[in-house]
Known about the structure:
The chain has helices at 5-16, 42-59, 70-74, 78-93, 108-120, 136-149, 165-168, 178-190, 213-222, 240-244, 260-263, 276-296, and strands at residues 20-24, 65-68, 97-104, 127-130, 152-158, 204-208, 228-230, 254-258. By secondary structure, it is α/β, with parallel strands linked by helices. The protein has one domain: Aldolase class I (TIM Barrel, Alpha-Beta Barrel), CATH 3.20.20.
Amino acid sequence: MSEHFADRLLAAIEEKGSPVCVGIDPRPDRLPEGFRAAPGTLQEAEAVYSWCRELLEVVAPVVPAVKPQIAYFEALGAPGYAAYFQVVEDARRLGLVVIGDVKRNDIGATAEAYAAAHLAADRAPDAVTVNAYLGADGVRPFLNVCREKAKGVFLLVRTSNPSAGQVQDFTDSGGTKLYEMMGELTAAMGREEGMTGHRGYSAVGAVVGATWPGEAKKLREIMPHALFLVPGYGAQGATAEDCAASFREDGTGAIVNASRSVIYAHGRQEYAGMDWKQAVEAAAKAFAEDIARAVRA
């Protein structure tokens, strides 16, 4: 794998025709009938993996990327942790760009270990989310992997949760908010040697919640060359128009994630009468079309 991560993701988006990503958040209690097993058993982890494998086959023709959330796999114990990496491998075999939603970080050697486990390993995804609020030294091991293995990172800058402002809106004496400082730090690391691809985007991206479109517009100015990973669409309440705030004027620069509204579409009224795969496919297509429309507007 030698092609720069940002170039690879942009090419995948163009191939599928929409800048969207499906989050893989397997909750055993919400899976379709046929994928249920006794809680806490090996069979439960096996059932979750079987569902993920079939889910990937449904969404692969529609979307360019998937984002497995490791927490749901870790909740299943060691078999679930193993299933996460198997899902990563299966997704890559299907031609999908894989963003591991792991939100790892620490200091020194511990950050190096996280980077080795979750980004550098052959079984690891193409990119991971990283909590950069510890400062640049905790991110550096991940950046080294990006250079060496053409991987990517998405640093938490403005998260989509309702209470994000309790911390991220903290303002210094000059009036600069903490999330803006994080955007500036992300942009600076993204400009370092070996980080920029042929198309002008960096391997250092940013997580910017669609639930904060005003903040997203400001961050786009601060980070013109960063790819934004945009959560918050669908179940969290953000609209396609909210998501559009994260894109550049040429319609590039971001990828929007939806999880529950797509993967559990079999429980939504508008898809009643469909089997679960039909519902997921219909929801994924509707999601992709909605975002593509808003970005083109």
